[in-house]
Structure formats: structure tokens, C-alpha cells
Specification:
Helices cover about 35% and strands about 15% of the residues. The protein is an alpha/beta fold and about 375 residues long. Helix 6 links the parallel strand 4 and strand 5. Helix 4 packs across helix 5. One of its GO terms (biological process) is polysaccharide biosynthetic process. This is DegT/DnrJ/EryC1/StrS family aminotransferase. GO terms for molecular function: pyridoxal phosphate binding; transaminase activity.
Length: about 375
């Protein structure tokens, strides 16, 4: 039996082991453990990669979202539009600043925020939109930008799953007033611990975020306001700077794997395969299928050595943590219909063609005679 993990971080580590080990020693010898030159180097390289003026590194993707919202002065009494089908951190950060998350159902094809439903939700309390480039597929940022301009809204992109993805040839993370990234280990660009950051072209917002992540301080022991300890560790900056060199190559391999899956599974009835929006360069952080037999297929694959995952088992409005917002079952029909059917297949750059073929063969075996 071929073993296919959902993700293989060890294989990736071994491919860059010498570089990483050398840098770890360098960080230790320089005692640059928190912030410092290795983080600054990554900030510079990642801002250049994206094509933005500033990148402010933070401790996590969640703290990046929190920092961005604070920098724009979003807080009590404000409303922020977020997709209902996403990881909790997107809405969590909105609640952390005292604002109200207003959920938007997902597009039935892309699973991203359904742009056609946004304008009906805007009122005098609406301050911002946080479009999430879910699973690695860009949201149509032109349409988001048009709506935001019309209603004078702030756009904060959530790029936690879309490092290196492009819309109409332009990097995600460069369309909004700011863009937040997570470098959780399993991401397309992942640290060896936790990490995050915010990209922006605004000098003023970048300066504010720099202070927010450092206890409200620009000068040591001089605090302009109450901030947070959202420092990135030196080792994470060093690892990310190394990995950044390989990101485009790794993303290319992810697209190749996704294409192989789609070609080989296109004739399997009951399966809905990922839809790629026109003029989007998807980076397939996740390869998500939809099936009426989700639990049975997941168990069958697990029994046959194939790791899978579910992103996400419940839409946010049905989570206990967001009951206070006041939504109920039936408010977001697409998200509710899809949640019990979504299954993420293994996808990582080091995945071999043999592993791809094995996963495909087991899926076809499961559906044989059904």
C-alpha cells in the first residue's frame, strides 16, 4: 500500500535542509531571536516579491489581520464584510477590534465570497471588506475594488492561502488598501512555527502597524499608545527568506498536481472538481472536491493510506463562537449545502506522480459500482 500523507513538511525540509540548518546557526550566533536583521531581510524580500512598498511582519496570520484592522481605525459600531466559508481567524480579528462581522455566502463555483451579494449588505455602519482568496484562488479584485470605491470602503485582502497567486497577471496582496498573510507551517510559504504579516503601499498605515506590533512603540520604552507584542521571531524570518526563493517553483508543481487530478478524475460521477476562474493564477493551497459521499470517501481513503482533510466542516455562522452575531440555519444556503460535501485531497510540491496515481486509483475504486 502506498502511503500518501495530506501534507509532507519533512520532505520539503530535506530539500532545503542545508540552507535552513546553516541559517539556524547564523541566527543563534547573532542572537537575533526576535525581530532583527533576519526578519527585516524577509520583509524587504517579500515586499519586493509582491511589488508593494511595505511589508510588516507579525507573529501570526491572525495578528496580521488584527493589526491591519486596528491601523485603519476599525472598531466598535463598525461592520466588516467577510465570507462565511473561511477559517475563523478572518472573522475573529473583526470581533477582536470590537466590530461586527457581516457574513457573505460563497460563490457556488469558486467557493470564494459571492460578490453579487455584497452590495445588499452595505449600510452606514459598513467600513471594510475582507475578501479571502480561498484555497489559493484569487477573488475578482476588480469587482471588489469597484464596490469599495463606490461605497468608500477599506479593502483588506486575506491572502493566507494564496501566496504567489495572481489575478489578471497581478499578485494578490496588491489590490487592497492592505493585505494579510499567514505563514503557518502548512501554507504555500510556511514558517517553522508561526508567522504572519501585512502588505501595504501606505507609508502612514505601515508606520502605524509597525508600532502596533511593538507595544505602541517606535522608540524603545517610549509608548505612544497601548499596542501588542506581535513580533516575528528571527528564525522564522530566516526560514521564510530561504523558502521564498522556491515559492514560484513549488506553486508551479502544485498547479501540475491539480491539473493531473482534474484530468484523471473528470469522468468520475458525483465528483465536483475545482473550478478555475478566468484570468486567475490559482496556487492550489488546497485541492478541494465536492461529493455526496464525503464521510464514506474520507474513511475509505484513510483506510488505504491516503490523508485528507475538511475545509471547513461548518460555515462560520453555525459555529458556537459566532452565535452572538444573530444568524441562523438557512441564512447562507450555498455554504450550508456545500459544507458537508467538501473534501481536501493531498497536495504538496514534493508529491510524486506515483502518489497522485494512487490517490486517483483509490477514488475510482471507491466509486466503482456506485
Amino acid at each position: 500500500m502506498v502511503k500518501v500523507p495530506f501534507l509532507d513538511l519533512k520532505a520539503q525540509y530535506h530539500s532545503i535542509k542545508d540552507e535552513v540548518d546553516k541559517k539556524l546557526i547564523e541566527v543563534c550566533e547573532n542572537t537575533a531571536f526576535t525581530m532583527g536583521p533576519f526578519v527585516e531581510e524577509f520583509e524587504k524580500k517579500f515586499s519586493e516579491y509582491l511589488g508593494v512598498k511595505h511589508f510588516v511582519a507579525t507573529s501570526t496570520g491572525t495578528s496580521a489581520l488584527h493589526t491591519a484592522l486596528l491601523a485603519f481605525g476599525i472598531g466598535n459600531g463598525d461592520e466588516v464584510l467577510v465570507p462565511v466559508n473561511t477559517f475563523t481567524a478572518t472573522a475573529e480579528a473583526v470581533v477582536m477590534v470590537g466590530a461586527k462581522p457581516v457574513f457573505v455566502d460563497n460563490d457556488p463555483l469558486t467557493y470564494n465570497m459571492d460578490i453579487s451579494k455584497i452590495e445588499q449588505l452595505i449600510n452606514h455602519k459598513t467600513r471594510a471588506i475582507i475578501p479571502v482568496h480561498l484555497y489559493g484562488q484569487p477573488v475578482d479584485m476588480e469587482k471588489i475594488g469597484e464596490i469599495a470605491s463606490k461605497h468608500n470602503l477599506i479593502v483588506i485582502e486575506d491572502c493566507a492561502q494564496a501566496h504567489g497567486a495572481k489575478f489578471k497577471g497581478r499578485m494578490v496582496g496588491t489590490f487592497g488598501h492592505a493585505a494579510c498573510f499567514s505563514f503557518y507551517p502548512g501554507k504555500n510559504l510556511g514558517s517553522y512555527g508561526e508567522g504572519g504579516g501585512v502588505a501595504t503601499n501606505s507609508d502612514q498605515i505601515a508606520e502605524k502597524m509597525d508600532k502596533i506590533r511593538n507595544h505602541g512603540s517606535k522608540i524603545k520604552y517610549i509608548h505612544e499608545f497601548v499596542g501588542y507584542n506581535y513580533h516575528m521571531h528571527g528564525f522564522q524570518g530566516a526560514v521564510l527568506a530561504i523558502k521564498l526563493k522556491y515559492l514560484d517553483e513549488w506553486n508551479k508543481r502544485r498547479r501540475e498536481i491539480a491539473q493531473k487530478y482534474s484530468e484523471k478524475l473528470k469522468d468520475v460521477k458525483d465528483l465536483s472538481l475545482p473550478y478555475i476562474q478566468k484570468e486567475c493564477e490559482h496556487v492550489f493551497h488546497l485541492y478541494v472536491i465536492r461529493t455526496s459521499y464525503r464521510e464514506e470517501l474520507k474513511q475509505f481513503l484513510n483506510d488505504n493510506g491516503v490523508g485528507t482533510n475538511i475545509h471547513y466542516p461548518y460555515p462560520l455562522h453555525l459555529q458556537e463562537s459566532y452565535k452572538f452575531v444573530g444568524y441562523k440555519q438557512g441564512d447562507f444556503p450555498i455554504a450550508e449545502e456545500y459544507a458537508p460535501k467538501l473534501l481536501s485531497l493531498p497536495i504538496f510540491p514534493e508529491m510524486t506522480d506515483e502518489q497522485i496515481d494512487y490517490v486517483v486509483s483509490k477514488i475510482k475504486e471507491f466509486y466503482k459500482g456506485r
